[in-house]
Structures are given as C-alpha cells and as structure tokens.
Amino acid sequence: MTQDSTLKQQILRGVAAQNFALERNQPPPDPSTQTARTRTAAQRRAQIFFGGVLLIALLLSSLLERPARNEPPISPPVAQQQTTTELPFPRLTLAAPEFAPEALRRAVDRPQKSTDALLRGGDFLQFSQFPLATLLGLSVRTILIDPGHGGRDPGAIGLNGTQEKDLVLDIALRLYARLQQHPHYRVLLTRDHDRSLSLRQRVEMANQMQADLFLSLHFNVLPQRSINLVETYYFGTEVTKHTAAIVAKENRGSQITMNEFNTLMAQVGDRLKIQESRLFATAIQRALFAELRQHDPHIIDAGIKSAPFLVLLGLRVPGVLAEISCLSHPPEEERLNSGQYRERIAAALEQGVLDYLDPSWHPDPTVLGDVLDVRSDLN
Amino acid sequence: MSDPTSTDDLLYMGIDLGTFRSVVATSSGQEAAVLSYVGWPKDFVARRALGKDIVYGAEALDQRQALNLHRPLQGGVLREGTALDEQAVAALIGHLIEVGGGQGRRLRVAVGVPAECLRINKLAMKQAVGAYAEKMIVVSEPFAVAYGLGTLNNAVIIDIGAGTVDFCIMHGTVPDERDQRSLLSAGDAIDQQLYERLRERIPEATVTMNMARQLKETYGFVGTSEKLVKVKLPVSGKMVAYNITDEISHACAYIVPPIIETTMRLIGAADPEYQPRLRNNILLSGGCSQLRGLADYLTRQMEPFEPCRFRCIPDPLNAGARGALALVKDMPEEFFNQL
Ligand SMILES: Nc1ncnc2c1ncn2[C@@H]1O[C@H](COP(=O)(O)OP(=O)(O)OP(=O)(O)O)[C@@H](O)[C@H]1O
Ligand SMILES: [Mg+2]
Ligand SMILES: [Zn+2]
After folding, report:
1. Confidence of residue B96 (pLDDT cuts 50, 70, 90)
2. Is the dihedral of CA A302, A307, A313, A317 positive or negative?
C-alpha cells in the first residue's frame, strides 16, 4: 500500500469515528410531553423577552451615531475552533416552529402595547430571581469578553506606568482560554490585540455576533492611592457622585450627545435585562472579591452597582462591567504585573461566569457592598 | 430486484453548505450551486402570486418582499431555538439533493459545513438533514476542501467564504480543535465595510448591500491596484461616474490582519519540525480567495515575520463540494451499513 492511501484510510476511519460518536450521543427522540411543554413555555417567554429587547435595540440603533470618519475598522471577534465528538448541547425542541417570528412580529407591530405589557406583566417577575440561563435551560452559549480601552486609549495608568488597556487584554485572553475549555460555550473577544474600539463598536459587535452574555473588563483609579476595591457594574440609571466619575471615565470615547443620551435613558425600561445583568454582576463580584481578598486582606468589597455605562446601554443581552481592582493602589499595580496573579483573576472571572450560568446557583441577597464616599475628582 | 448490498445504483453526493452559497456535486457528474436563501411566502396573497410554498436561492433573494426570508447559517452557526432556520437548512439540503438528481435514489451524502457550525450544531445539522438522507456524513468545510485536493499532510487550508474564514491544518489525521480556527469576518464583512464607506462618501448615490457585494466581486483587490476602479452609481435616476478605488481597497483589506494573525498563531502552535513545510503550503479556497492580489499580498505581509507561501486553489467555489464528494465515494460501504 502506498503511503498516500494508508493516510487516506486513516483519515476516513477518523471521519467515521467522529460521525459515529455523534450518532451515539443523540438524545432520545421523544421527550415526554411534560418536559416539552415546560420548555416551550420557557422558550416562549424568552422569545417575547428578546422581542421586547429587540424593539428597544432597534430604537437605540436608530439613535446611535455613525463612527467618525477615520475610525479604524472593528476588530473582528475571534472564535476559536474546537471540534468535539461529544454532543455539545441538550437540544430544546420547539413545538410550534412559527412562534419565534410571531413573538418578534407582535413586539414590532404594536411596540407601545407589547413593551408595556412586557414590563408590567407579572409573568416575568415571578422568574426574576432566577438567572435567565436557568429559564432557558442551558441555552446561553455565546459569551463576548470585552477588554476595555485599547489603541490610542490607554485607560487608567498606574504610578509605574502599567496601562489598563494591557492588563485587561491579558486577562481577557486568559479568561478566553479558560472558557474555551467548556464545550458548551462559544467565546468571543471584542479585541484580541491592542487596538482602538469605540463603545458603539463594542455594543454593535455584541448585537451583531448575537452574544448571549457580555462582560467588559476594566481597572479602577481612585484619588486615594491607599484604597483598593472591587466593584462590578450593571446597566442602570442610578447615579451617585462616585459612579458619575467612573461613568465619565469609562464613557469617554462615545459619540453620543447628552441629549441623545437622555432620550436613550428614557426609553430603557427593560427591567428583565437589568435584573439579569444584576445577577450576573453579583456572580462576578462575589468570585472576584473571594479571590482578591486572598492577596489583599484590606481590599474593599464595593459590591455591585448600577450605572449608566454606555457600553452596557445598547446591549440586548445581560452585560456587566467589572472594575477588577485599583491600578491607583501601588501594591496592587505591583501584583498585577505578575502573570500568576492575572491568571488567578481570570480564574475568578471564569468562576463568576460559570456560577451565573449554573441553574442551581442563587445569589446571596445581602451582596450590596460597602457604601463608600469617594471624591469624584477623577477624569 | 436490486441487491441492497450492491453499490451499483448508489448516487454519491458532496454538498458544501455555505453561509452564502451552497454547492452540490454528484457521482453522475452534476454540479450545481444555490444561494443559501430559503423563503416562505409571507401570506396567502404572496403564495398565490409566487405559485409555490417555498422559494430557494437567487429567486428567494429577488422575491424577498413577498417572503419570510432565511439565510440559515449566516454568522457561521445555527442559533439555538431558531426552529425556522433549522427547517430552512433541511429544506435547502432537500433542494440541493433534488437539484443534484437525487430524488428517489439510494444516496450516500457528505455535507461540509462551516467549522464553527460543526462544533456547535453538529447534531442539529444532522437532524435537519436526516429526513433527506439517513446515510450521511458531516465534516468541516476546509477539511472537505483539503480532502478533495488530496493534501492530507503538511498543508494549511484557509477557506475564505461569505460568513466565515475557516482555517485547518492537515497533518495526516482528521483535524481536531487544535488544528482549526474560525474567524467571523469574511466576504459579508467586506460588503458591509464597502457599503458603509460608499454611503458615507457618496451619500447622494443609491447603494445597496447587494451592489456592494457585486462591486467587491467585480473589482475587489488587496495591495496595490494597477488600475483605478471607476464605476457608475445611480444618483436620483441618473448614472454618475465615481472613482471608488480607495473604498474598495480599504474594505477588502479589512479581513487581512486577522487572517495573518491567525495563520501565524496556528502555524506557531504546530510541531516546530513541520512548521517550515506548513509555511510553504498555505492554500486559499472559497469565493473571497478570488480577491485580486490576495495570495501575493498575504505572502508579502508575512515576510517580516516568517516567510510563507500562500497560493489560490483552482475552482475555489466548488472545491468544498467536490472534496465532500471524493470523501463520500472513498468511504467504505461498511461504514454506512453501521449507521
Ligand atoms: N470573484 C470574486 N472576488 C471576490 N469575492 C468573491 C468573488 N466571487 C464570489 N465572491 C465572494 O465570496 C463569498 C462566497 O464564497 P463561498 O461560496 O466560498 O462562501 P460560502 O461557502 O457561502 O461561505 P462560508 O464558507 O463562510 O460558509 C461571497 O462573499 C462572495 O461575494
Ligand atoms: Mg464555503
Ligand atoms: Zn476602564
């Protein structure tokens, strides 16, 4: 036998093996009607939810500006290939294939009514204490990691010159590699190298790539160098002095006028998304704090907060912004220069994501964080 | 009576299920392409006007006003819960089988799908297709291309399609996750870039995404162009000439940096002993490999890092379907009997 045909045989056997594995993992074709009904109901709720969210997103996208003329193109999100012979997912079977577009059409045809109904509907509230991921079975699968800043925007800079944009990119890549190990998730990055991206571009990417979950990574700077704290934000409308400063810092680089911003704010009544984001923020905050306190016993748990971050505003899906720790705190800056430490942070973030997606996970209702008054003299 | 163990009356089919364009090739020598669009009439009136319940390909695109139009694999994956997209994939495959003359025949089919779709939707794909051909194999697109070319060893295949750029290293085995990558910016992203640039620079002209795609296909290039690109665009009913060389050039260049980075990373992660051979055998397939100057440009861009040689394969649009056909013909019948 020639070498070539031996190779061919070997490859054909490999293809056959892959396809057999696929057959074997096939779930029983006839799920009990009971499960089918529950799933369908959950799915329908989700569809209506996304219908409403889509509507809001449509309103938003019509208001968001076009990019400035010389803006570099969006770095294409990167999806790493992972072939697995295992069944990637228990599949949800839909009883009535028409209802997905139906729900969307309902939401779009009668925007006022359906959005209001969506917001008032007690139907949703009874599920609000469970992560959306739970409602949908395991259907969350596309996670978009967003390392903040980049390119001409360095973000915060430590006393020793460490730049926020480099730290968050490094941690994002580590987190990416970790989440990639889980065959259920498709993991994407808004940028995988040092490049500028506007907030609008990041949001567009999340929406275009149909991300299911959005996690933006940042580091804080505080005027008091002695303080180190962890805090996680989700989109909301409350503004305190401290959050105003952070918001100003992280919203820099958007091309949205104040007027448009106010209009946008008025239109966001999307409670379910906010509730989901809040749960996601809780999971991230808890995991981060548990890890960081092992390195700095004095680190403050500033808890989860809601703030009007533009990068979270236009999202159709739950999204949070983690201010991992304070680059303004010199010992922290020093720690952050260790790859091992950054790996620990990535591991904590991974844990946070997994917790949120775990149907059996419930947030501790007391995670509100310490109240802290920080002067807002940052810019 | 036909002998069920005989392979004489079997029809073998290779199908390349693309995000934009799907191709079928059969053992009886047929080849056909269908744009990956499926549409169902929006309502009773539309159904009567169209005279059918389902419309495929270019016709579906043309009649989109009257249809609920689906492009099921757009973005490289089937979304969970998008039942209509699944139906659309099934219908599309049924249509391809019909176009390939497979109705009522005993079939052996291999389907190449975007690599990311293979990872995420393997089972969904298989179920979607099951109704049409129980004897079926699913493989990734770039692997099908490699198999068809007979490059089973020491090669990198980069399939640059509409929705995805799929990378695959061949080293004598079925590629696994370490050997494959997908990027989600390909031909569609160029269209989008070109469309936005043209709308921004020439707001008075009527430009559609479809026109952007056609402009890319006709004039697209990377690197330096020997000629200026001058086209006529409709401005309030009249055709006006514009020089769009820069817009074309920038839009097409958009997909290059991630391709370079990914190529470097993939090769860099391979066994150092084989890296020089891989670097010398990088093959471009897919519709967008036809962008003028692409292989040379990529070769030049890599020079400062590691010298590499990129080449375009012949018949880049049909290579996937032909490869899938070659594979299904080579697959021993015992394999299908066990399915
Ligand atoms: N001559 C050409 N020059 C440049 N691009 C072209 C040319 N002909 C076709 N294309 C583009 O190639 C793409 C289609 O290629 P192909 O048929 O390989 O994609 P596909 O298989 O549908 O997509 P994918 O591989 O992502 O699933 C489209 O974006 C199309 O506009
Ligand atoms: Mg293709
Ligand atoms: Zn920041």
Report:
1. very high
2. positive
Task: Compute, in angstroms, the gap from residue B159 CA to the centroid of ligand 2.
Answer: 6
Return mean pLDDT, chain A.
63
Q: What is the structure's pLDDT at B68?
A: 86
Residue B57: give the domain boundaries: 10-148+318-337
CA separation for the pair B25, A166 (Å, rounded): 49
The answer to whether position A146 is within a domain reads yes
What are the structure tokens assigned to B125, written together?
A: 């794909």
Please state the three-class secondary structure of A312-333 as a single string.
HHCCCCCEEEEEEEECCCHHHH
CB contact under 8 A, B332 and A12: yes
Give residue A83's domain range. Answer: 41-136
Half-sphere exposure for B101 (CA within 13 Å, toward CB): 11
In the three-class reduction of DSSP (H, G, I as helix; E, B as strand; rest coil), residue A35 is classed as: helix
> What residues in A contact B81, CB-CB < 8 Å?
43, 46-47, 92, 94, 100, 139
Give A7's contacts (C-beta < 8 A, 6+ positions apart): B152, B153, B172
Atom of ligand 1 nearest to the CA of B288: 5
Question: In which residue are the tokens 């020491």 written?
Answer: B154
What are the C-alpha distances in Å from A153 to residues A320, B238, B295?
Answer: 20, 44, 33
Higher pLDDT, A357 or B251: B251
Same domain for B14 and B129? yes
Beta bridge partners of A231: A323
Residues of A with CB below 8 A from B148's CB?
none
Helix or strand run (H / E) with residue B232? strand B230-235
Whether A204 maps to a domain, the answer reads yes
Q: Do A263 and A346 fall within a single domain?
A: yes
Residue B333 CA to residue A89 CA, distance in Å, equals 30
Asked if B116 and B77 count as a contact pair (C-beta separation under 8 A), the reply is: yes
Output the CA torsion A119→A124→A127→A129 (10° steps).
10
Instruction: Determine if the pTM surpasses 0.80.
Output: no
Residue B40 sits in a domain whose CATH number is 3.30.420.40
How close is the nearest chain B Cα to the Cα of A84, in Å? 6
- Which residues, judged by CB distance below 6 Å to any ligand atom, belong to the binding site of ligand 1? B 18-21, 36, 114, 141, 159, 161-164, 186-187, 213, 216-217, 220, 286-288, 290-291, 317
CA of A196 relative to ligand 3 center, distance in Å:
13
Res A55 pLDDT > 60: no
